[in-house]
Design brief:
Layout (H helix, E strand, L loop, with lengths): L13 H20 L13 H18 L28 E7 L4 E6 L2 H5 L7 E7 L4 H11 L3 H8 L6 E4 L4 E10 L12 E10 L3 E6 L8 H9 L9 H14 L1 H20 L5 H34 L7 H66 L15 H22 L4
Parallel strand pairs: 3-7
Antiparallel strand pairs: 1-2, 1-3, 4-5, 5-6, 6-7
C-alpha cells in the first residue's frame, strides 16, 4: 500500500524535532510565568481573572495540539488500489458542463453513469464531483473511463502530494488548493486557512475534477468563463480547460499569501511594543509559521507539477496550451518566492520578539539589582547598630538615631548618583 506525505510525520529530522520541542517549551514556560499573582496566593483570586486565564490556557493547548488530516480507512495489508471510505467525508454531488464554441449545457446529475452519458463527441465535457463520501462512485468512474486503481486510491487517500502521472489515454493530476474561511467574527487577515485536495483526470474530450470538500467551489471563475464564453474557454479542448483549472488553483494562493503577509506585519509591530500577554503573541507567531509550512507544502510541488506538464510530450497537451502553462509556471514561482520570503520574515520576527522579551527581562532585572544593591549598605548599617553589645558609645548619643538615618541617606544618595553617572539607572 502506498502512503501519502503525512505518513512520514514520525521521520522528521532531529533539527525539526528540536524546533518543535523548543516551541512547546517556550509556550509552556511563558504560560507558567504569566500566571496572575492573585491566583497564586490564598484569597486573592477573582472569577474574572480566572476565566481569562482559563481561556488563554485553552488557546495554548489548542495551538499545541496536532492537527490530523482526514484519511481513508485503509487497513494494513490491503491490496493496492483498495478504495476505502474517508473519515467525515461529505456525500458527493455531481455537476456536468458540456460545451463547444456555440453552446453550453450545465446540469446536476444523481449518478456517475448519468454524468458519463453526457460525454458528447465534438464537445468538451467537464464532470465535477464534490465530496469523497461514496467510494463505489469512484470505482464505477474508474470502470467506465478505464482509470487506474492506484490513481483512484490516491483520490481517496487524502492528503496526497501534488503530482502528475501520465497514462496511455489520460493524464492524472493532483492539486492542493487553499482558501480563507469566511467567518463574520474573524477578520480576513486572521481567518483560518482551508486546505483541500483536488484530483483531476483529463483525456481527449473530457475532464473530471474531484474536490475533497463539498462546502466550497474552487473553480467558480472557470465556470463563469465557460458560461459567458470569455477568452478561449469554449474554443479550445480539454487540455486548455485543464490549464484554466490549474491556473485557478494557483491564483487562489495569492489571497491566502496576502492574509499571511498582513498577519506578519501586525505581529512584527506587536513584537516591538510592550505586550501585555506575550504568550499570546508567541502563540500567533507559532500558528503563522505552521500556516506557512502548510502553504509551502502545497506550492512547492506545484512548481514541479507544472514543469512536468511542460516537459510532457503527450498528444493530449497541445503546444499552444503549453504556452499558457508557462504563464502558470511563472505564477507558481512567484507564489513560492512569497512563501519563502514570509518564512524568513517569520523567523526574523520570532527572533525579534524573543530578543525584545529578553531585553525587557534584563531591564526588570537591572532595576531589581539596583534596588537590592542600594539596600546592602543600609542593611549593614542597621545590622551594626542592632547588635546587642553592652558597650556601644553611639547608643548613648542624644541624636544617634538621626545620625544613623542621615548616614543611610548619604550612602544611598552617593550610590544613586554613581549609578546614574554610569548609566545604570
Amino acid at each position: 500500500m502506498r502512503r501519502g506525505p503525512w505518513s512520514s510525520r514520525r521521520s522528521r529530522s532531529p533539527a525539526a524535532r528540536a524546533i518543535s520541542i523548543a516551541t512547546r517549551r517556550s509556550l509552556s514556560l511563558m504560560a507558567r510565568e504569566s500566571v496572575p499573582h492573585c491566583l497564586t496566593r490564598p484569597g486573592g483570586s477573582t472569577s474574572m481573572i480566572r476565566m481569562d486565564w482559563n481561556r488563554r490556557q485553552r488557546h495554548l493547548r489548542a495551538a499545541l495540539r496536532v492537527r490530523r488530516p482526514r484519511v481513508a480507512r485503509i487497513r494494513p495489508g490491503s491490496l493496492p488500489g483498495t478504495l476505502a471510505p474517508v473519515d467525515k467525508a461529505e456525500p458527493p454531488t455531481i455537476t456536468v458542463i458540456t460545451f463547444n464554441r456555440e453552446s453550453v449545457q450545465e446540469r446536476r446529475v444523481e449518478s456517475i453513469d448519468g454524468a458519463l452519458a453526457a460525454i458528447t463527441p465534438g464537445a468538451v465535457t467537464w464532470i465535477n464531483v464534490d465530496g469523497l463520501g461514496d467510494p463505489s462512485l469512484f470505482g464505477r468512474l474508474g470502470e467506465r473511463l478505464g482509470l487506474h486503481p492506484l490513481a483512484l486510491e490516491d483520490v481517496l487517500n487524502v492528503p496526497q502530494r501534488p503530482k502528475v502521472e501520465r497514462f496511455d489515454k489520460y493524464v492524472f493530476v493532483i492539486l492542493r488548493t487553499m482558501r480563507l474561511e469566511r467567518r463574520p467574527d474573524v477578520e480576513a487577515g486572521g481567518a483560518p486557512i482551508i486546505d483541500e485536495q483536488v484530483s483531476l483526470f483529463f483525456g481527449t474530450e473530457w475532464v473530471v475534477t474531484i474536490q475533497e470538500r463539498a462546502d466550497g467551489d474552487s473553480f467558480g471563475t472557470v465556470r463563469d468563463a465557460i458560461r459567458q464564453g470569455r477568452g478561449r474557454a469554449r474554443e479550445a479542448g480539454a487540455d486548455y480547460l485543464t490549464y484554466l483549472l490549474i491556473d485557478a488553483v494557483v491564483d487562489a494562493y495569492f489571497p491566502v499569501l496576502d492574509a499571511l503577509a498582513e498577519r506578519m506585519q501586525l505581529l512584527e509591530e506587536e513584537a516591538l511594543v510592550q505586550a501585555s500577554h506575550p504568550e499570546e503573541t508567541l502563540l500567533r507567531l507559532t500558528r503563522l509559521r505552521h500556516d506557512l509550512i502548510g502553504v509551502r507544502r502545497a506550492v512547492w510541488p506545484m512548481r514541479e507539477e507544472i514543469a512536468a506538464l511542460l516537459r510532457d510530450d503527450s498528444p493530449l497537451i497541445t503546444a499552444e496550451t503549453k504556452v499558457f502553462l508557462r504563464d502558470v509556471y511563472d505564477h507558481a514561482i512567484q507564489a513560492l518566492e512569497i512563501v519563502e520570503t514570509l518564512r524568513e520574515t517569520a523567523v526574523s520576527v520570532m527572533e525579534l520578539f524573543l530578543s525584545a522579551q529578553n531585553q525587557r527581562l534584563n531591564e526588570v532585572m537591572k532595576v531589581l539589582t539596583v534596588i537590592a544593591t542600594l539596600f546592602i549598605p543600609l542593611t549593614t548599617i542597621a545590622s551594626i547598630y542592632g547588635m546587642n553589645f553592652k558597650h556601644m558609645p553611639e547608643l548613648e548619643w542624644r541624636y544617634g538615631y538621626a545620625y544613623a538615618l542621615g548616614l543611610m541617606l548619604l550612602v544611598a544618595g552617593i550610590m544613586v548618583g554613581y549609578f546614574k553617572k554610569r548609566g545604570w539607572w
